[in-house]
Structures are given as C-alpha cells and as structure tokens.
Design goal:
- This protein is an alpha/beta fold and 688 residues long.
- Helix content is 41%, strand content 17%.
- A 7-stranded parallel β-sheet has the order 3-8-2-17-18-1-19, with helices on both faces. It has a 6-stranded mixed β-sheet with strand order 10-11-12-13-14-15, with helices on one face.
Length: 688
C-alpha cells in the first residue's frame, strides 16, 4: 500500500520547492545526507510528511525528546490515517538505573515502572516492520538505539496459521508458549491466551484485537476476530499471523547455552577478583549471578536480565546489541528532527552508559557482559543509517558537513510573519534601558523575554524589576518541572508579562504574545552566546507581528554578526516573497495540537501544518483540580511536616504515582512529569 496524505492544507510558501528539492536529492541524486534548514514556524513537519508520501519508503522519524516524539506521532498519524504510523519510545514511566558510587560506598538499586500501553506500542512497531508492509512511519525517541531482541529470533517465533490447514492444537499451544504468551483463564490481558476445549482465544501483546482459533482434531477449523469485551465473533479470517509477546524472545536451546556461558564467565571473573585480592567483590558477584541463574532456570526471567542479553542473543563479546534500526529494510528513510540537539544526544549516549556500568563491573555487581547491553556507539549508528534528512532551524557543522552542501532552505512562513528586527545597544545603563523597553511593551499589551548568562543574574534582575512594579518571574534549571509549567501558564495568561531566564532556548518557549526578546551580555562568547543559540533565541520573537530583538553588547562578536546577517538575509527574502505574492502577515495564536491531548481538548486550539510543531515544552492548561490544587497542600506539608503522618505521605505518593501512570498511558508526558515531581516531593518529605 502506498502512502496517502490527508490534509485540508496544501504546501505553500517555499514548502513546494523544499519538498521537490528533498525528493530529488534523495530519489534521483541518491544523496546519503540532506539538510532541511527551516525557520521556526515554516511548517517543517508538513514538508517532511509530503516528502515521505512522495518517496513512499518505510521511514524513521527520530526525535531527542519523548514529548516532542508524541507530538510528531500525533501529527503524522493525522496526515496518514490509512497507513501504519507507529510510536517507539522508552516504556518507563520513571526509571532509576542501577549504579554504584565507590567514593561513598553507595549502591543504588534499579527502580522502574513500565508503562504497559507504551510497551504495547513498541511491540506493534516491531511487528509492523517485520510484517513486510512498506507504508510504515515510526516516530521514535533515541530509545530506538538501545538494545532489543534479535529480529531473526522475533521473526522465527512468529506464528502463521491458515484456516483448514493441518496444524495440531498441542503444537499451536507450544508455539504460543515459546513466543512468550502466557495462559491465563481469569485475567485475559494483552500477551495471554485462554483455552476452552478445542477453542483458543488469543489477546496479542501488540493489539487490542482478540482472535479465536477453533480446532477440529489436527486441523484448523476456523479463525475469527472477536469482540474484546463480549467475546462474540466479528469477522471470519482466512489466515492469522501472531507476533511474539515480547521484543526479547529466544529459543530454549539458546537459553541452555546461555546459562552454561554465564556460569563459565562467572568462574573466570571470580578467579580474576581472587587473583588481585578482591575477595569481597568475588563473593558479591557469585551470590548475585547464582541467584539470577536460579531465577532464569525456574521462571525464565530475573531482575536485570538485560545484563545477560549478549548470551541470549548469541552475540560475541564486545559486539553491538540489536536495536530497532535492525528491523528496518535497507532502503528506509531516516528523518532526524531538531538535528542540532538530537545528533549530540546520540553521540553522548554511549559514554554515559559506559561510565555508570564500569563501576558496577569493577566492584562485582555484575558480569562484564553488562557492558554489551548498551546504546549504540555513534559510529555504529552511522553504519546503520539509511538515507537521512536532518531538519533544524540551526543545523550544526556536523549535519552541514555530512550533507556536502546539499542544504534545502525553507524560510517562508505560510503566515507571512517575518524574522524579527535585531538591534544592538551598549551595556552602559542597560538596566534603565531595559526598564524603559518593558514599559513600552506593557503599554502595547506585549510580553517580554529576557535571557541572562547566570541564574544569579536572572534572580537579581527579577528582584529589581519587581521593586520597580514590573510583573516578572525568573525561570531556570533549579525551578522544578511543575513550578516551571505553572510559571509558563501564568505567563501565557498575562498574570505577568516579563519572563527572565538563563537559557530560554532550552526551555523551548514558543509564545506568540512575545514581541520583544532581550539578550543581555550578547558579546560573551560561549555556548549560550554561540550563533546557533543566539539564532534560536532570536526565533522566540518570530511568531509576533511586531517581533524584535535587542542585544546588549559593547562589541559585535563573530557569533552576533553571523546571527544578525543571517536574520537580515532571511527577513529580506520573506519581505520580497510577501510583496510578490500579496501576503499579509497574520499573528499566530498559541495552542496545543488537539491530536496529542484529546482528553484535554474541548476544541480550544489546534495546530495546523502551516506552522511548525508545537515546541515540546509549550505550556498547557493545568486542570484546576490537579497539581494546582495540590501545591498548597504540599507547601503546608513541607512547612509543617509533623501535620502529615507517614500514612498520609504514603497515600499522597501512591496517589501521584497513579496519576503519573495514567497520564503517561495517554501519552501526556508533560502532565506525567508534573505528577512525578509531586511524587518525588512527598518521597523526600517521607525520608526526612
């Protein structure tokens, strides 16, 4: 089946030429790497959707953030309702990895909560990719670079049956068990089956659909799709393909082989520890691994079984793990969204994992095989890349070098809005000048963003402006997620109209009411004042009809010059286009895509393809009876901890854990983060 895009909008502005250029580079010129340089609000997602439809290949859309991945998934789902759009992100609601800190002799046990809904979506992704379908789009976070099961084993344990064929009932049950389905007559949940005589009901782990297989002796008499609630037959099927109930599936023979290899490596590692006088580490490793082996023999699973994945996958020492990229065909297309952030994250993943596990291995908490359960190294990722489109408003040197000059620009906003004007002012008397600019903005009903270099400066400036009767707040990394969202919510509702922060680029602010962005110390070269950071910060004013930027600096650095020149170039192109096509700029109204948060909709706002995807940290309306209502209770509890008993604290922890899980099931990761932070607050209070 081919991709078929559905949208009430058609490509406009310079979207058509961007689509044509990308398709030509990938399809005709066979370019391995292409960069899409699209300004904020130019509709990069809609462009990418049209490219996918034209190329008609299996596609992986890679995002650096779970929440942004959710937004992209909902948008692609709306563009391609008749095609397979899958979602693959980490299935943990929260995750505390196992770690050991030798400096303080502190062992941190692994703690996690798995989201069953996301686990089902991950299985659906693997099943769809191995089904042979070509009209597949997978929207994924960098979780796709972590180890999952061997695709050959997954395919080998796939069950195919046809109505009328000889396929014994007992053989079918054995295959179901090997594919990790469990028999459960009472709790008929995903990944289980139940047996009533010659009738077997199956609830696939990756779907809400129920299947019924009826046997007559050694022959399959009938296959039916059934209603999940009533059990009534809905549709007669000629054949059925059942995929395994887990991404980590293997054969009994390999399990036996793995156990022997683990035992051999345990003996070898213990001898090593004893030879260097580390008897404590040797005994610790012996007790832990032997316990794990007993669990694997008895129930087929143990806590931390991923540390033994190399044995079960049949991989050699030091080899890379299998990952989702192994499930794609060779000609698949990769799109890396916000590549200037996503690529560095991919590059850094292996190093962080390696540092943590090195201590665990050296101090006898696990075998060296744990080092082979890891994310891909960057060079391994590059070898698995298909033809790739890097999409960003500020592509980094890496993407530009890889693209070898093949850079497609998308500078025209369908709304007609222009890049903001930039003005450079001296730092002398800058605070007085900032105050005057704020007064002017207040008189027009506009909002202001101010970015500083340090947290202390942000806080001190906030205190000063507050004394001058300016309604302002500060925001930086020390502000918790829930407080940050509360602040942004109030900012959008004009409770205050000046927001001060250290790295407002990182906060992902995308607020159309902001008409003025002030950058203090713009001439202090560094990460926060590099030309890419400056360009991203300037873009915060690009959604307002009267958007402008003031940089306070005593010299014009190279980064400032690049940003000013590039912004001026884009603005002149945009002005020329508007004049030639009689486009009148229109003010963008803020809002969330109703596709992502349908439960919080009430038809209040939508995101159309003529604007970029909503930034992943965009504030949304918090339910009045949720975190806002709970906040005073928490403050009261912290101020007077004796008022809340241990029982009450545990009840609050359980309450917010359940709320967090529920929000994550609905893919509302922003709200899940709120509830998680509240849960952590009560947990900290309980420790005290």
């Amino acid at each position: 089946m081919d991709f078929k895009i559905f949208s009430e909008y058609s490509p406009t502005g310079d979207q058509p030429q961007a689509i044509d250029s990308l398709v030509r580079s990938i399809k005709d010129d066979h370019a391995r790497h292409v960069t899409l340089l699209g300004v904020t609000g130019s509709g990069k997602t809609f462009t990418m959707a049209n490219v996918v439809a034209r190329l008609n290949r299996p596609t992986l859309v890679l995002s650096h953030n779970k929440t942004l991945a959710g937004q992209l998934f909902s948008e692609f789902k709306s563009f391609f309702p008749e095609n397979a759009v899958e979602f693959f992100v980490s299935y943990y609601d929260y995750y505390q990895p196992e770690a050991y800190l030798p400096q303080s002799d502190t062992y941190i046990e692994k703690d996690l909560a798995i989201n069953e809904e996301i686990e089902k979506l991950r299985l659906s992704t693997a099943s769809t990719l191995l089904s042979g379908r070509r009209d597949v789009i997978v929207v994924s976070s960098v979780s796709c670079l972590y180890g999952i099961g061997n695709p050959a084993d997954f395919h080998e344990n796939t069950i195919n049956i046809k109505s009328g064929e000889l396929f014994g009932r007992q053989r079918f049950l054995q295959k179901m068990t090997t594919a990790l389905y469990c028999r459960d007559e009472l709790d008929f949940k995903p990944g289980s089956f139940r047996v009533k005589g010659d009738t077997i009901d199956i609830h696939p782990a990756y779907s809400d659909t129920i299947y019924r297989v009826v046997f007559n002796g050694e022959r399959v008499e009938g296959i039916f799709e059934a209603d999940s609630k009533t059990g009534l037959k809905k549709e007669v099927l000629e054949f059925l393909t059942l995929y395994p109930a887990s991404n980590f599936v293997t054969s009994p023979e390999r399990i036996y082989t793995a156990i022997e290899e683990i035992q051999d490596d345990l003996v070898e590692r213990m001898e090593y520890f004893n030879s260097i006088g580390k008897s404590i580490e040797a005994n610790r490793l012996k007790s832990r691994v032997e316990y794990d082996l007993e669990m694997i023999k008895e129930v087929g699973y143990c806590s931390g079984i991923e540390n033994y994945s190399r044995y079960f996958d049949g991989r050699s020492k030091g080899s890379r793990p299998f990952c989702l990229l192994d499930y794609f065909p060779e000609d698949y297309l990769m799109i890396i969204d916000e590549s200037h952030v996503t690529v560095p994250q991919i590059r850094a993943m292996y190093g962080g994992d390696f540092a943590r596990k090195t201590n665990l291995v050296e101090y006898g908490f696990c075998l060296p095989s744990a080092m082979d359960n890891r994310p891909l190294k960057f060079e391994e990722f590059e070898r698995l890349q298909g033809q790739t489109i890097y999409a960003s408003a500020t592509p980094a040197d890496f993407e530009l070098a890889k693209s070898e000059g093949v850079v497609v620009e998308q500078l025209i906003r369908p709304t007609g809005l222009l890049d903001p004007k930039i003005e450079v002012r001296p730092t002398e008397n800058q605070i007085d000048d900032i105050l005057e600019q704020i007064r002017d903005a207040e008189s027009l009903g506009d909002s202001v963003l101010i970015t500083t270099l340090t947290k202390r400066m942000a806080e001190e400036l906030t205190r000063y402006l507050t004394r001058m009767d300016v309604k302002c707040r500060y925001i930086h990394s020390d502000v918790t997620t829930i407080d940050r969202l509360k602040l942004l919510d109030e900012f959008r509702d004009n409770v205050f109209n000046v927001l001060i922060g250290v790295n407002l680029l990182r906060e992902g602010l995308d607020l159309p009411q902001v008409a003025l962005v002030i950058i203090m110390d713009a001439d202090k070269e560094g990460f926060l004042r590099s030309h890419r950071s400056l360009t991203q910060t300037v873009g915060r004013a690009a959604r307002n009809l009267h958007g402008r930027v003031i940089m306070y600096a005593d010299t014009i650095t190279d980064s400032m010059r690049i940003t000013i020149d590039e912004t001026s170039r884009r603005r002149s192109i945009q002005e020329k286009y508007n004049k030639e096509h009689n486009v009148v700029p229109k003010q963008v109204k803020g809002g969330l895509s109703k596709a992502l948060f349908p439960q919080n909709q009430n038809n209040e706002a939508t995101t159309a393809p003529d604007s970029d995807t909503v930034d992943y940290n965009l504030v949304y309306k918090m339910p009045e009876n949720s975190a806002k209502a709970a906040e005073p209770v928490m403050e009261y509890a912290i101020e007077s901890p004796k008022i809340m008993t241990t029982k009450q604290l545990n009840e609050e922890i359980e309450k917010y854990k359940n709320l967090m899980t529920g929000a994550a099931k609905k893919l509302d990761f922003k709200k899940a983060a709120e509830y998680r932070d509240m849960m952590y607050k009560f947990q900290e209070e309980l420790k005290k």
